[in-house]
Amino acid sequence: METVYRSKIDKWLLVVLVLAMGVIGFVTLGFYAGAFYAGASTYSWWYGALFAVLAIGLPAWVLLATHYTFERRELLVRSGPFRWRIPVAEITNIKPTSNPLSSPALSLDRLRIEYGRGRWIMVSPHDKEGFLREVEARRGRSGPEAR
Questions:
Q1: Which pLDDT tens digit goes with each residue over 23-78?
Q2: Cβ-based burial of 96 (10 A; exposed 0-12, middle 13-18, buried ≥19)
Q3: Overall pTM surpassing 0.85 (yes/no)
Q4: Quick one: CA dihedral 50, 6, 15, 109, positive or negative?
Q5: Which residues contact 147 (CB under 8 A, 6 or more apart)?
Q6: Rounded to an integer, what distance in angstroms lies between the CA atom of residue 91 and that of residue 83?
Q7: How close are the terminal C-alpha atoms of the chain, in Å?
Q8: Is the CB of residue 98 less than 8 Å from the CB of residue 88?
Q9: CA 52, CA 131: separation in Å to the nearest integer?
Q10: Strands 119-123 and 74-79: what pairing?
């Protein structure tokens, strides 16, 4: 059975990403309008369209598709086009953090998951306590030793 936990999203990050996408869209439309009136070549249109799709599409994809799925024996972490598979049995430690390093977490209210041989990833499940209980249940443990 799969259980999905959505990422918590900090309001400030949502505002920054939406504003950035809006500015890029506005600038791209302005470029297109100027290029149209200046008689720009078809190639410049394609480059502008590609830039706009990447610059607007990637942040939107990350915003809409950052979540953590417990599958049978793995935690699947997804953030837009990026994926990580973490065997639940290899999780050695989970601790709260507010580390701002890049990670598949849309909030600074994060959990650092240590697993395998010195590997780690930071996530920000909206239901942090439920997420921790799920890890403990899937590891066949209960109590603070799973944290």
A1: 888 887 777 666 666 665 656 667 777 877 888 899 999 999 999 999 989 999 99
A2: exposed
A3: no
A4: negative
A5: 93, 94, 95, 132
A6: 17
A7: 22
A8: no
A9: 36
A10: unpaired
